[in-house]
Amino acid sequence: MTLRWKSFLATVIAVAGGSAIYVTITRLEPNPLTIGLLLALLLITVAAATIPVSAAVNNRFARADWFSADPNRLWRHAGESGLLAVILAYLQLKHTLNWVAALLFLVAFVVVESFFITRVE
After folding, report:
1. Contact, 85 vs 42, CB < 8 A?
2. Does the model's pTM come out above 0.85?
């Protein structure tokens, strides 16, 4: 599957996930099951929305053979960004999120990703 095709499918999934989040927020009563559904949809939507952006940034700034050298990079970026969004949304839901915590989580995810990119195989 080519990179353009993956980006197109990810965009379609992100739009569908955003629509599902809208329906969940506007039509369903808030209870623990609905909140779990919302966080799962947020993970899927943010992860899918990250794939085209990550592909464009990697095509611009990474080595020419980045896709063949590290084929899991797009999935890793998508998973990390989706997980970060869910963690921050959950902390905001519990009223414990502040800018220091958000910055620490962001720095932690950037450090982990920089470790994966710079490791020698």
Report:
1. yes
2. yes
Domain of residue 91 covers 3-118
Residues with Cβ within 8 Å of residue 18, at least 6 apart in sequence: 45
Exposure of 90 in the CB half-sphere (CA atoms within 13 A): 15
AA letter at 70: D
φ, ψ of residue 65 to 5 degrees: the values are: -105, 30
CA distance 25 to 29: 8
Provide, rounded to the nearest whole percent, the portion of the chain with pLDDT above 70: 98
Name which residue leads in pLDDT, 68 or 57. Answer: 57
Domain count, the chain: 1
